[in-house]
């Protein structure tokens, strides 16, 4: 089967967007985050909102696509063991050794943690509750912060693996075939309906807290798009239709967002239930249409062996694990220096990119660190003359 370069490229670009988004969280007004700059911008809310509504849905959809390809020719048990290793080890390592700078900086900024990172770590590794509001996750004694995605993805992977007999049954294959056969407006409308229904039924009862056990609204949305990704797979007809509709979806998505934004801006916060349901339905339609536009354009433009893609495919996981801790650490250092509204975000972004690049170059060269950042072990080279006569020469790393 031909490699799907567009999916690899889209994964890399989605996580690049995540880095930019988290850098911008320092500066967007009225949105809480671990640290906040004095250079806040209200205007930044609107482009952030435009991206916020689908950014994680896209990442979970790509994850579902990856599961589709990884399951080819692999037994369910072996697949689950491999995925657990590649998700839970980086999650555990990251929580213990990468993330702690974030609660430390937040706790010091909030005046509830004493300065001194060494002393903080000695207290942090006791996993006991902290003073209320010290940092996100204070009540548990530790936090996974941006690594929550790995925990959620592991749970969805376990659930999907358990559902494989059902998904591969006659009824499951009929449902998958029904999705793959959607064309035109049906493709743009019908998959959005479950997202709207879940919002109407669950959002009033479950706030987006990042609590794995009680986050049922986001679980319903994210697992649905994760399942969509698994079902999309490599169906040539469906991908051709997404590509054919790419101009239509690129036009429609901004219009839906404009309508959604107009309702948010013009209506009071307390509206009748019917109006709130309309707002959530518009949001769901925007999310799905935006995803269709992204998938269609990426398939058209990126499904080729781009020269930067092999490096980026390997770099995605370490950069994801590292980036937010670097953002918070750099901001913690430079906010007291009172750089200007242009220099400060430039330093944060440039420092984050440079730090991710340097640390990734170290990680990829250290065998013990590679699995801690989600990288596979390097294949050992076979010395010349010891391998089979017909074996090709190994490619350079």
pLDDT under 50 segments (min length 5)? Answer: 386-397
How would you spell out the order of helices and strands? HHHHHHHHHHHHHHHH
In percent terms, what proportion of residues is strand? under 5%
Main sheet properties: none
What is the count of helical runs?
A: 16
What is the rounded Rg?
Answer: 22 Å
How would you characterize the overall build of this protein?
This is Acyltransferase family protein. One of its GO terms (molecular function) is acyltransferase activity. The chain crosses the membrane at residues 12-34, 54-73, 85-105, 147-167, 179-200, 220-238, 250-268, 274-297, 317-335, 341-360. With 397 residues, the protein is mainly α. It has 16 helices and no strands. It has helices at 5-24, 45-52, 55-70, 76-98, 101-109, 117-124, 148-167, 170-180, 185-189, 192-202, 216-232, 236-244, 246-266, 273-302, 309-334, 343-363. Residues 386-397 have low confidence and may be disordered.
């Amino acid at each position: 089967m031909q490699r799907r370069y567009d999916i690899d490229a889209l994964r890399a670009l989605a996580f690049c967007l995540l880095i930019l988004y988290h850098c911008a969280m320092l500066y967007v007004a009225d949105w809480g985050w671990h640290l906040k700059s004095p250079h806040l911008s209200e205007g930044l809310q609107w482009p952030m909102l435009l991206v916020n509504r689908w950014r994680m849905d896209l990442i979970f959809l790509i994850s579902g696509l990856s599961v589709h390809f990884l399951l080819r020719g692999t037994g369910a048990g072996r697949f689950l063991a491999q995925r657990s290793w590649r998700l839970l080890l980086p999650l555990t390592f990251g929580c213990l050794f990468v993330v702690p700078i974030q609660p430390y900086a937040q706790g010091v900024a909030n005046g509830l943690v004493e300065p001194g990172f060494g002393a903080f770590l000695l207290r942090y590794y006791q996993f006991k509750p902290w003073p209320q509001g010290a940092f996100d996750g204070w009540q548990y004694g530790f936090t996974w912060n941006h690594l929550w995605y790995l925990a959620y993805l592991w749970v969805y992977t376990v659930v999907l693996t358990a559902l494989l007999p059902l998904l591969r049954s006659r009824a499951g294959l009929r449902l998958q075939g029904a999705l793959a056969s959607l064309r035109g407006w049906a493709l743009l409308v019908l998959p959005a309906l479950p997202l709207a229904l879940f919002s109407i039924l669950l959002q009033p009862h479950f706030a987006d807290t990042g609590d794995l056990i009680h986050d049922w609204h986001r679980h319903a949305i994210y697992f649905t798009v994760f399942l969509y990704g698994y079902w999309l797979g490599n169906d040539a007809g469906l991908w051709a239709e997404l590509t054919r509709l790419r101009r239509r979806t690129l036009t429609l998505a901004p219009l839906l967002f404009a309508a959604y934004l107009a309702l948010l801006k013009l209506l009071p916060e307390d509206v009748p239930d019917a109006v709130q349901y309309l707002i959530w339905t518009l949001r769901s339609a925007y999310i799905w249409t935006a995803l269709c536009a992204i998938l269609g354009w990426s398939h058209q433009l990126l499904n080729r062996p781009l020269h930067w893609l092999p490096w980026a495919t390997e770099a995605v996981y370490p950069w994801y694990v590292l980036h937010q801790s670097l953002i918070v650490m750099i901001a913690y250092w430079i906010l007291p220096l009172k750089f200007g509204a242009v220099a400060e975000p430039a330093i944060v972004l440039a420092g984050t990119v440079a730090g991710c690049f340097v640390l990734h170059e170290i990680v990829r060269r250290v065998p013990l660190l590679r699995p801690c950042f989600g990288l596979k072990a390097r294949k050992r080279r076979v010395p010349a003359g010891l391998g089979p006569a017909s074996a090709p020469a190994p490619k350079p790393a």
